[in-house]
Amino acid sequence: MTRRTSRLVRVLSSALAAGTLLATAACSDDGDKDGSRASGVTASPAARKQPTGSPTAPGSPTTTGSPTGGAALTESGAQTALITEADIEDDWTQVKDTEAENWHDSLLIGTVDVSDFLTAKADAADCQRLMDSLYDDDLLGKPSGANALRGFTQDDSRLLYQVASYDRSDPQDSLNWMAKLPDECDQFTMTENGEERTVQVIETSLPNVGDARAGLRVTVQGTTGGEQATLTLDVAAVRVGNDAITVTAGGLDGNEHDSVEQAVKLGTQRLKDVLAGKSPAASPSEIE
Question: Region Disordered: what ranges (predicted)?
């Protein structure tokens, strides 16, 4: 990918006031890329992405241990493994599941500009898949087994937490794909209804939990309601055997990386306890 000067400085307060959000899911940082203009990759923002095996990236996600043994994840088990408000502390408030299921952010919609990439079709397709999967909340693909999610709000940020089984697919393929995105998609442009949006993707660190993990921060700068807005999303995925947790959090107010780290650390342990047939430990704020 060629270089360009950075234009960046869970979408909400100003976007909601302008009435332009489709709904919201929700994360800022930097990285640079440049290129000349050309035709784009066809976008399909409402289409669910089916992850296929991607070559392992040079910076593939950290792997520790072997897949956790134990019973298969059930629907009730997935629900039990979900984090609570106490697990992420701060001022997060849980919302109804039906509300969280419909969180989608209009700033994530667009057609990726192929001209931003040296290896245009391959890299641009991966970046398009990233934006589509963030919009659809299926970063690791469609779960093939049990699946449960929970949403939280805090001021103008939102956090979406998912526990799912991928026993008929391989979540490691998706983690390998995520690991190469900071290199392939560190900065690019996408277009929606004639308006350009600048996207930056960087790698973020996560607690050393689970069998493998990958973290990203995705920043989207664009126009909503006629005003400039910057959406910052912190994204994390952790594999435990053939099951995984995913967290997406952020908004217009800035990053929510600390909350994501907390959710990953305690959420992974909750999932491991459920798979081992144990009751998840009490959340930190529940312990006197």
Answer: 26-73
